Amino acid sequence: MNTLTKHFIKETRRQNIIQQREINNLIHAKSSLWINVSIYVLITVIEYWLSMIGHSQALRADAFNNLSGVISTVILIIGLAEATNTDDDDFIGKPIAKKDRNNEALQLSRFRLETIFTLITSFVIVLIALQIIVQSGIGLFHLKDKVSPNLLSALGAFIATILMLVVWFLNHHNGKKLHSTSLLAAARDSLGDVVTSLGTMITVLISHFLNLPWLDGTVSIAIGLFILWSGIKIFQECALNLADYVDPEFENEMKKSVSEFKMVHKVLDLRSHYSGNILVVDIFIMVAPDKTALELYKLNKHIENKLRNNFNVYDTTITVIPDPKDIK
Question: Ranges for the Cation efflux protein transmembrane domain (predicted)?
Answer without folding.
Answer: 112-242
